UniProtKB/TrEMBL annotation:
It catalyses: DNA(n) + a 2'-deoxyribonucleoside 5'-triphosphate = DNA(n+1) + diphosphate. This is RNA-directed DNA polymerase. It comes from Vandammella animalimorsus. It is an enzyme of class 2 (transferase). Keywords: Magnesium, Metal-binding, Nucleotidyltransferase, RNA-directed DNA polymerase, Transferase. CDD domains: RT_Bac_retron_II. The lineage of its organism: Bacteria, Pseudomonadati, Pseudomonadota, Betaproteobacteria, Burkholderiales.
């Protein structure tokens, strides 16, 4: 009775263990399946709205924006997995991988400008957001930066020939735009809290500092997430974010008789003579509006320029027509003459030692501002580049028109490569390169056996190994299609013949040993008989009567 109770208790405990293991497996499987199509957590402080997944279709339909219902559909449109989308959007205070490559560029006014260029995997998703969402949203007509068909020339044109020109600059323009404002842009477009959080995280960066520890590099966060200067999606986001700022400043300026334009963080106002006495009122109102919109004016970059002095807007002189600075053009002309005379060795332009490329860039800029004036200089600089790339003692330099044709052909041959091809593939949700590495999917959970199940498995394995170790003759014949099965009667006769055959062999061996009448041979025969039957795992008990007979029978 006691043994039965113990056995029943052990069975109940085993059933409880198996039920708990099954419950753990079901929870792990459910979590694994949810992670395959949803994003539940993206870091501390940014995951609060990930449970709200209701879009506003009427808002999204205004500009025919994509309408993914959940992160899985968004990842499919982008051409990535949910795991990769989660990895690129996750906000980490300490990370071993950085999605940005940061470097500093010198400013014209002095100091350094921090540039954060996204790595290809993140840039791919930012291009998708830019071409499929951000570029479809209309912005204010006063915005001229980073828009197709607009440039610094179109930004300067409304201010040509004015009695007064005012330039303002927004301080720390990109770093001052924090993650909540970028998330709010996508929410205002009609996306759910969940998708807006993911898109906002993809378009923002947390400033970090690289630290070396035990041979590993860790990126430690040093501030809050903000808009990075250098990401392809950042300029379009600033134009969308500044729509209300542009609308308010444009309306205020129009009431006072001023024209208003904005190129990124450069704000420009201008007016004719009747309104130039209202400069103070305009500046006071502009400060109020800018502060109310969450920006700060740079205290050292406020310029009020009258018609009696040189007036500049985004680097162009606008007194009579958009033109470049005269002193800068004289330096450019002198540098071109020196390169034509002595060659490019030892020359530089604006601190750039690659003088030919730097001069070519400025020549294109001059041609954009004033095509008639810049065309001859562009041809001369292009001729210098061709001459520098040609080997010594080569043929005479080609004509400028031939140079333009050669460069046009070279550009046409590269149309399907480089950055444009990367952007097109990213916008279509395709891998930019043929051998684009894909991260491995996380393994599915498995049901863990209990200790009793593992012990039973081990015993079954040992039995299989022991069966496999038997000789072929000793193994039971497997039933299959290749060998016919024995009838039950034949199998029974075969099993009955085995003990009889062993007994006959044993008696024959005993008679033979008695005939020899040698105890040593008798003992050796008995040992051989014992070893043979032990090796073949057959009945060895006949060894005992043989040994007893050898001891009792006299020789």
């Amino acid at each position: 009775m006691r043994r039965q109770r113990l056995q029943a208790a052990r069975q109940r405990r085993e059933a409880t263990r198996q039920a708990r293991a099954q419950a753990r497996y079901e929870r792990a499987r459910s979590w694994h399946e949810r992670r395959q199509h949803s994003v539940l957590y993206l870091g501390q402080g940014v995951s609060g709205g990930l449970q709200h997944s209701d879009n506003q279709p009427e808002r999204l339909a205004r500009w025919q924006l994509p309408q993914p219902a959940n992160p899985q559909q968004l990842a499919q449109l982008m051409g990535v997995s949910v795991a990769e989308l989660r990895f690129l959007a996750y906000d980490r205070a300490v990370a071993r991988v950085s999605h940005y490559r940061s470097f500093d560029l010198p400013k014209k006014s002095g100091g350094l400008r921090r540039i954060s260029a996204p790595m290809p995997r993140l840039k791919r998703l930012q291009y998708w957001l830019l071409d499929n969402i951000l570029s479809k949203v209309p912005v204010h007509d006063a915005a001229h930066g980073f828009r197709p068909g607009r440039s610094i020339c179109s930004n300067a044109q409304p201010h040509v020939g004015k009695a007064v020109v005012i330039n303002l600059d927004l301080q720390d323009f990109f770093p001052s735009i924090a993650y909540p404002r970028i998330k709010g842009v996508f929410r205002a477009l009609g996306y759910s809290e969940q998708l807006a959080s993911i898109m906002g995280l993809l378009c923002t960066q947390r400033p970090t500092q690289a630290v070396q520890l035990d041979g590993q590099t860790y990126h430690i966060a040093t501030g809050a997430r903000h808009l990075p200067q250098g990401a392809p999606s950042s300029p379009a986001l600033t134009n969308i974010l500044c729509r209300r700022l542009d609308r308010r400043l444009h309306g205020m300026a129009a009431k006072l008789g001023f024209a208003y334009t904005r190129y990124a963080d450069d704000l420009s106002f201008s007016a004719d003579a009747p309104a130039q006495h209202l400069v103070g009122k305009l500046l006071w109102r502009a400060r109020q509006i800018i502060a109310d919109e969450g920006f700060t004016l740079h205290p050292d970059k406020l310029h009020v320029m009258r018609s009696a002095r040189r007036q500049q807007v985004t680097g162009l002189v606008v007194n009579a027509k958009p033109s470049i600075d005269r002193s800068t053009f004289k330096r450019f002309r002198a540098t071109v003459f020196q390169v034509e005379k002595d060659g490019p060795q030892g020359k530089s332009w604006n601190g750039n030692d690659n003088v030919l490329d730097a001069l070519l860039g400025y020549a294109h800029f001059l041609h954009m501002v004033d095509p008639q004036r810049g065309q001859p200089w562009l041809q001369r600089v292009q001729a210098l580049r061709v001459a520098a790339q040609a080997p010594a003692q080569s043929q005479p330099s080609p004509e400028p028109q031939q140079i333009l044709e050669l460069e046009s052909a070279a550009k046409a041959s590269q149309a399907g490569r480089g950055r444009s091809a990367f952007r097109r593939a990213s916008a279509q949700g395709q891998a930019p390169w043929a051998h684009w590495w894909q991260p491995a999917q996380p393994p599915a959970p498995v049901l863990e056996p209990t200790e009793a199940q593992r012990q039973a498995q081990r015993q079954a394995q040992r039995r299989q190994q022991a069966q496999a170790a038997l000789p072929t003759a000793a193994q039971p014949q497997r039933q299959g299609a290749l060998e016919p099965q024995q009838p039950p009667e034949e199998a029974q006769h075969a099993s009955q013949r085995n003990p009889r055959m062993l007994l006959e062999q044993t008696l024959a061996l005993l008679v033979l040993l008695f005939m020899l009448r040698k105890p040593s041979l008798l003992l050796l025969g008995l040992l051989i008989h014992l070893a043979y039957h032990l090796l073949h795992r057959s009945s060895w008990w006949l060894f005992l009567p043989l040994l007893l007979a050898s001891l009792l029978v006299p020789f």
